[in-house]
Design goal:
The chain has 353 residues and is an alpha+beta fold. The chain is 53% helix and 8% strand.
């Protein structure tokens, strides 16, 4: 138990065996033995390790740590294994806090995620994914209108959404995975709202399309197609742009982005996929986007999503007496007095959360 948690905490902090050993005043060999379970640190050493790794000493004594099962990543190939391990550690810490909180409710506060019924067992082409996205929208009573808060939709059907801070890494967009039987999606705070939303819809695509794609289909491309169709249904795109266009105004793309929360580049790709514009015209606009620096930073970013359900659950549990104020502050990683001021809507803390 201590060994596994020590490994995760060290990797999450980004420290090498040598750096951690130097920080707590023991040999690298000793740290290696701690991590392999060949040697158990005493209470004094646990305190030193906790301080060096910025965790509480009780962290090492919790039950065996959770693991990401079937992870599907949206990240750049240049993201180093060390950085990815740091990100995964932060994600798992957040998930542990969330599941610990949920376990204190007398009844599960979040439903179990189930893939909607009525989807085909085998998908042979990308065009079929358009109908699948519509089916999911219909089953979830979303209609064909813009989805204002995608996080709320996912949480309402049992997918827990977590956010990694900007400092995690700009090469990481997100992931989908199963943890302890629960479906989770992670997004990065480093990106604008339209990119976050596409990441969430893409990861939802992985969950919905799993084991349904024919062997010759690329899962990443299929999940991209699902994301575009889920955020901006074909009928909505046709209604806004028409079924065939020779040219598009950039302002048209921006207005659609503001309405549906999907990037201008994503809308452009949808228009090409659905035959509204020709591939050569799409390519010319992609070149124009590159010249303007819009491949990374489009004009007027869509407002970022706000995964706030963990905080809502904390105050729900606090109001019903399932947890104490000190436990709530601990779960929020806040000093108790700061948490109290936030709870009472006092001062700057109330405005910052």
């Amino acid at each position: 138990m201590i060994a596994e948690r020590l490994v995760r905490a060290r990797k999450t902090s980004g420290l090498s065996l040598r750096a951690l050993a130097d920080s707590v005043g023991v040999s690298q060999t000793a740290i290696n033995k701690y991590e392999k379970g060949l040697l158990t640190p005493d209470s004094t050493m646990l305190m030193k390790l906790a301080k060096a790794l910025h965790v509480k000493a009780g962290y090492f004594l919790r039950p065996n740590p959770l693991k990401l099962e079937k992870p599907e990543y949206r990240k750049k190939s240049s993201l180093s294994p060390k950085k990815l391990a740091m990100i995964e550690g932060k994600i798992l810490n957040k998930i542990e806090q969330r599941l610990e909180l949920e376990s204190l409710f007398p009844q599960p506060p979040v439903p179990k995620f189930v893939v909607p019924k009525g989807l085909p067992d085998t998908i042979e082409s990308l065009d079929e994914i358009e109908d699948i996205a519509k089916t999911v929208r219909h089953k979830w009573d979303l209609g064909l209108n813009p989805i204002p808060e995608l996080v709320d939709v996912l949480e309402s059907v049992g997918i827990r959404v977590f956010e990694i801070e900007e400092s995690a890494d700009s090469k990481f967009d997100g992931l989908a995975a199963i943890v302890n039987g629960y479906h989770i999606i992670v997004i990065s705070k480093a990106w604008s709202g339209d990119r976050q939303r596409f990441t969430m819809a893409h990861e939802l695509g992985h969950l919905v399309l799993e084991a349904r794609l024919s062997p010759d289909m690329d899962e990443e491309r299929a999940s991209d197609r699902f994301a575009g169709a889920f955020l901006l249904p074909d009928s909505a795109l046709y209604a806004e742009l028409g079924e065939h266009r020779t040219r598009l105004e950039l302002r048209e793309l921006l207005l659609l982005k503001q309405e549906f929360g999907i990037s201008m580049a994503g809308i452009l790709y949808r228009a090409k996929d659905l035959g509204v514009i020709k591939p050569h015209y799409h390519k010319s606009l992609v070149i124009e986007f590159s010249k303007r620096g819009w491949r990374k930073n489009e004009p007027e970013p869509y407002a970022a999503e706000n995964p706030h359900h963990f905080e809502q659950l904390i105050f729900h549990a606090l109001a019903e007496g399932y947890i104490s104020e000190s436990k709530a502050a601990e779960l929020m990683d806040m000093p108790q007095m700061a948490f109290y001021r936030m709870r009472m809507l006092e001062g700057n803390n109330a405005a910052s959360y």
